[in-house]
Each structure stands twice: as structure tokens, then as C-alpha cells.
Amino acid sequence: MKPRDITQLAEAIKSASVPFELIGAGTKRTLGRPVNATPLDLSAFNKIIDYEPEELIFECGAATKLTDIQKLLKKHGQMLAFEPPDFSQLLGSEHAGSIGGALMCNASGPRRLKAGAARDHILGVAGVNGSGEIIKAGARVVKNVTGYDVPRLLAGSYGTLMALTSVIFKVLPAPETEETLHVKCKDLPQAVALMALALQTSAEVSAAAFVPRQGFYLRLEGIAASVAYRREMVVKAITIKSELLPEVQSRLLWAGLRDAAALWKHQRKAIWRVSLPPTDAPRFLASLGDVDYFCDWAGGLVWLAVEPQRDVRKHLKHGHAMVFRANPATRETLEVFQPQPAGLRALSSRVKLAFDPKGLFNPGRMYKGI
Question: Of 115, 209, 227, 233, which has the fewest CB atoms closer than 10 Å, so is most exposed?
């Protein structure tokens, strides 16, 4: 089923008697638990609707490719500040995916430390709920709201609440330049402590990551003179020898970290994405033994590769762990997303019921029965 416009989509959902697997670009279908439902192709919603560079506002169909959007923004010296990752190599897809998929997964790259995630940049959405009603929420300016903040609520919902047709995002000017400080520190606890020191300065570090056997990296972005001044501020704060990576090398480094390139070689292992307090990362990783990993977000995000049936949550005291990539059997056996406490699970069920009372959208993708 492939509706041509939002009216046709609403009619299809209103008259539906079977559940749907919502598909935009289709690049993230392997995220979450396997879905057994009729495909609902939303790829027709792929047009640029409006772009006002002077107002920093961008509106387009939810299935519009990220690469197309980024090319257009680049012509005007602007960017999606949440730095959406390209997981095509990791997930075996043809391209980086759609803007709607980025929102539904609440995607964000290394700049999340400074700029936030996709949910922090969404202004408005349009789509159809599970009752076949056309929904428009949010606007071109940020306003106080009562009830559900629908655009933000959809972030990280993995297509379980609404069939999304269009989105409005705020965009930001792209930095004039960037550079990265590299510190050859092989000790993760020390690296986490030093990255924290750098972030506590007013240098506005936009990314911080640790790579085993290499050390840690700190990115600075902006006007060249400002970057140079802030670099010296960071150097004084961390009081340890560092080397400077120029702009070209810096961009390649952070693109690889953004896309989890270090783990592409693990074709048969499960890939986990773990969010936890940075200070707990050393203990967590030490308890796992010899695993291939790297840390982003100053230690607050750990990517790692383990054997398919291994459950790393047994070693996690605080935070959330997601089975990001695994074979269908593993995704059926293990909880893909962090199990919810009873109160939060009840709230999730009520939200699902409010948006999708017949349970039509991506049934079971996140949790059984939701």
C-alpha cells in the first residue's frame, strides 16, 4: 500500500483491519524487534515543502532523504545541528535514510553534547494517527503548549504512534571551521576525567570521544579566531600534552565516530548502544572484559560489539542499553530496548492507546504488546 497524499493515507488507516509496518526510506527496518505486519509505504512524502534560510526554518516530507536535505542546507551555509548519523554501512542499507526516520529514532551525532538531539530541533509535524485523523502539531516558532508536545513525543517512538508525513525543523549556521585536539591517553578513567574538565570550561567543546589505543579527542567549532582562543583555554584546563588535528582530518574523524565506523568490521556480532553516566563507563567496560568499543559524548555513550546472545545489561548499574544491530533471533530473544519500570510502561501504554487505539502501527517494534 502506497498512499499518494495525506488524505489517501488517512482513508487507508481509517478503514484498516490489519496492522501496518510503516516504511519511509526503509533504511532502519532492522532497528527494534521484528515486525510482522502489512507494509505501508510512505515514500511518496519526499518533497521539500518550504525553506527559509534567513528564518532558519526547514519544512519537508518525512521521507525526504537526509543527503538531499544536507546538500541543500550546505549551499546556504547551514546544517542540521544534531548531526544525524549515517548508519547505512552498519545496517546494510543503501543510504543514510530519511529525515522522518531520524526523528523517529531521535538520532544524534557527536554534537549532541552541545546542540542536543533531533527532538531538540523539531518544531512541527503532520501525519495521521491510528484512528485515521489528520494531525498537525507544533509550528514555525517555539510556543508553550498544553497537553502532549507531539513533535517531541514522536522523537524516539520508532513509528509506533503516528504515520508521519511532514516535519518542520530549525536549522543553524554551519561553523566556519573546526579543529580537534588529540590526547594520547590510553587510560579510560583518566580520559573521562579530562574530558569532563574540558567540558566544564567556557570553551564550548562540541564533541568529546575516547577510542581505545588512540586516546581521546575534543572538537572545537566556529570562527577561526575564536576556535584558536578556546583551544588554548582547553589546553590549559587539561594540563596534558595534546596534538592538533587540522580541519580535513577532524571532519573525517568525527564522521567516522558519528557513523560507528570502528564497528563496521563486526559482521556477525551484535552491536549495542549504551547510554550511561560518563563516570560509570570505565567500571561498566571493565566488567565486560575484552570487547571492541569506543565512547562518544565524553563517555556517556558506549558503542560495543559482542557475541549475539550476550546480554550486556547484566553489567549496567545505571543508564539504558539498546541492541542496535543483531540477527532476528537475537532481537526476538533479548529485549531490544531497555526494559521499562512498571510506572513508565503503564504511561507508555496509555500514550500508545491515545495515538493508536487499534494498535495498527509497528506492533511490538519497541516492546511486546506496545
Answer: 233
CB 99 within 8 A of CB 151: no
Are β-strands 20-23 and 134-138 bridged in parallel, bridged antiparallel, or unpaired?
Answer: unpaired
229 and 188 in a common domain:
yes
Write out pLDDT tens, residues 189-240: 999 999 999 999 999 999 999 999 999 999 999 999 999 999 999 999 999 9
Burial 69-95 (b: 16+ CB within 10 A, else e): bbebbeeeebbbbbbbbbbeebbebee
CA distance 78 to 180: 21
Indicate which CATH number applies to the domain containing 251: 3.30.70.2190
Cell numbers 529514532: residue: 105
Residue 298, pLDDT > 60, answer yes
Same domain, residue pair 14 and 141: yes
Q: Any idea which residue has 549475539 for its cell? A: 308
